[in-house]
Design a protein that fits this description.
mainly beta, Rubrerythrin, domain 2, 4-stranded antiparallel β-sheet, 1 helix
Length: 55
């Protein structure tokens, strides 16, 4: 019996701007086995920056 958390774990995306702002999302472990990097909006610096996956 497989659980949905096995394939799509929750991940924390932390801002690379050094503000400590985070997003919580899920990822598909089969299609993206390595760490995710996304450009998202950081309201503390009021611009889009790279957010990297934390474990």
């Amino acid at each position: 019996m497989s659980r949905s958390s096995d394939v799509r774990p929750k991940i924390k995306l932390r801002s690379t701007a050094g503000t400590g702002y985070t997003y919580v999302s899920t990822k598909n472990r089969r299609t993206t086995p390595d760490r995710v990097v996304l450009r998202k909006y950081d309201p503390r610096v009021r611009r889009h920056v790279e957010f990297r996956e934390e474990r």
